[in-house]
Amino acid sequence: MAEPPFEIPPIITYAVPGFVLLIVLEMLYIRVFKRGGRYETKDAATSLAMGLGNRVFGIAFGGAAVLVYYWVYQFRLFDLGWTWPVLAACFFAEDLAYYWFHRVAHERRWFWASHVVHHSSQHYNLTTALRQTWTGTLGLSFIFWLPLLWIGFPPLMVLMFSAISLVYQFWIHTETIGRMGPLEWVMNTPSHHRVHHATNPKYLDANYAGVLIIWDRLFGTFVPEDEEKPAYGIVSQLGTFNPFRVAFHEWIGIWRDVTRAKSLKDALGFMFGPPGWSPDGSRKTSASLKAEWAARQAATAPAE
Amino acid sequence: MFSQLLAGFRAEAPVLAGSAAVVLFMVGMAYALGFRAKRLLNEAELARLAEAEGASLEGAVIAPDKRAAFARLGNGKLMVARVMGDDVSARIAPAAAMRVAVTQGRLHAVFADLGFPPLHMKLEETPPWLAELAQGGR
User: Fold this and answer.
1) In a 3-state reduction of DSSP, which class is residue B60?
2) So what's the ipTM on this one?
3) Is residue A29 within 8 angstroms of chain B, CB to CB?
4) Are A245 and A115 within 8 A, CB to CB?
5) Which of A35, A163, A293, B35 is packed most tightly, with the most Cβ within 10 A?
6) How far is the C-alpha of A301 from the C-alpha of B94, rounded, in Å?
7) Contact assessment for residue A233 and residue A120, using Cβ atoms and an 8 Å cutoff
8) Chain A: nearest CA to B117, how far in angstroms?
9) How far apart are CA A39 and CA B85, in angstroms?
10) Cβ–Cβ under 8 Å, residues A192 and A225
C-alpha cells in the first residue's frame, strides 16, 4: 500500500504561521531583554529571501526528486504498508538518512555547495533556520533518502517525515534557549545545534543530527556546547548579503577550480573532496583547521 | 513540461505572494525594532582579526565610513574586512590570490576566489605600502 490511509496535510505550509510568530517573539525578546542572541535587518532579510527562493526552486525542481522517489520505489525489497510499526521505523530511518545526508553535505564539496547557504549567516536566530538552499534538488541531495524507498517505505511516508524533520529543526536555531536537561541526551536541541553552526575549530564538523542527537553519539560526531561561545558562519566568511551570491558562490567556485584543474584527479578532488581541498594543500579544510587548533592547544598547555 | 511548470507556479502564486508579504513584514519589524548594524572597524579590531590568523597587522587602511578595511599582515598575506550587520567578516589571502589597484582615490581589491565579493573602497590617503602593492599589480 503506497498511498496513505489518511490525507497528509501540507505540513510545512501549516507550520509557517508558527514560524512567523516565533520569529516575532524572538525579536521582541532580544529587544526587550537585550540577551538571547542578535538580529540584524539585512542579515534577516537575506535569510528570509533565501527561504522564499527555496520555495520557488522547490516548485520548479522539487517534482523531479519525487519522481525519482517513485521510480526507485518500483524496485522495493518489501511492501511496507502504512502501519504504526512501519511509521515508527520510517521515523528513525528518515532521521538516520538525514544524518548521513547532513554529514556528507559538510564533508564533500559537491553537496556543501548547496548546504553552505544555510551556514552563511554570522548571526544565529530563527531566521537562520529559513536560510535554505536553492540548489538542493539540482545538486542531487535527495539521493540520501533513496535507500528508504528501495527498502520499501512509501514515498509519501518518507516525504512526510522529511517535512516533520524540517519543521522540528526550525526552533533549534536560537540562542534564547539554554540547555534542556535530559532532553539533551536524546534530542537535537538549540545547544547542540549552536555547536553545529559554530566556526570555532573545536566545534567544527559536529552534531549533524536532524531530530535525534543519538546518531552523533553513535557515530562519534557529537560535541557538547561548553563555555566557549560559538562564533557563527563559515570558516571563510562570505562577506555579502546578496542572495544570489549566497546561493551560487560555491558552485561558481567549483566551476572555476574544475576548469583550471591540471588533471582529472584534481578536478574530482575539487568536486568531491572536502570543502577547502586543493591539490597542494594550500587551502584550509576543517581537518587542517582542527589540526592547527590542536597543535596550538598542545603548545600552550601547561607542562605536567 | 514548461506548461506544467507554469501551472505549478500559478497554483502556488497565492502562497508565494503571501510568503513575500510575510517576509516584508518581518524585515520591516526587524528594522522598526532597531536591529541595524552599529559595528565599526578600527585598527584594534583589525589587529584582533589578524591575530586570530596567527599574524600581526603591518599596515591598514580603513574606509571613511569605517565599515570596510584593507590590511597587510606580517605573514605577507592581505586581509579584507567588512562589517556584516553586527559582526565583521574577514577574508585573508596570499597576495598572489588578490588583484589590488588604486585609481582616483579608490581601492579595488578583487579575490581569485569568487566567494568573497570584491572590495571597492574610498581612501582618505594612500600609504606607501599600498601604493607599492597596487603598482605591482598584485
Assistant:
1) strand
2) 0.87
3) no
4) no
5) B35
6) 30
7) yes
8) 7
9) 8
10) yes
Rounded-to-integer distance, Cα B103 and Cα B82, Å? 20
| Cα gap B85→A121, rounded to integer Å | 10
Write down the residue that cell numbers 567588512 correspond to.
Answer: B82
| Three-state secondary structure call for residue A31 | helix
> In angstroms, how far is the first alpha carbon of chain A from the final one?
65
Interface check A81 vs B, CB under 8 A = no
Containing H/E element for B71? strand B68-73
Give the tens place of pLDDT for each residue, B38-94. Answer: 789 999 999 999 988 788 999 999 999 999 999 999 888 899 999 988 888 888 888
Closest CA to B85 of B126, B52, B123, B39: B39
Q: Do residues A192 and A168 touch, judged by C-beta distance below 8 A?
A: no
CA distance A205 to A273: 15
C-alpha cell read off for A196:
553545529
CA distance A94 to A88: 10
**Three cell numbers at A233?**
558562519
**Share of chain B residues as helix, strand and coil, in percent rounded to the nearest 5:** 40, 30, 30
Q: Mark which residues 204-263 of A lie under 8 Å from B by CB.
A: 233, 236-242, 245, 249-250, 252-253, 256
pTM across the whole model:
0.91
Under 8 Å between Cβ of A172 and A189: yes
CB B30 within 8 A of CB A35: no
Beta-carbon separation of A39 and B116 below 8 A? no
Distance CA B41, CA A82 (A): 59
Q: Please identify which residue in the block is written with the cell numbers 504504526.
A: A84
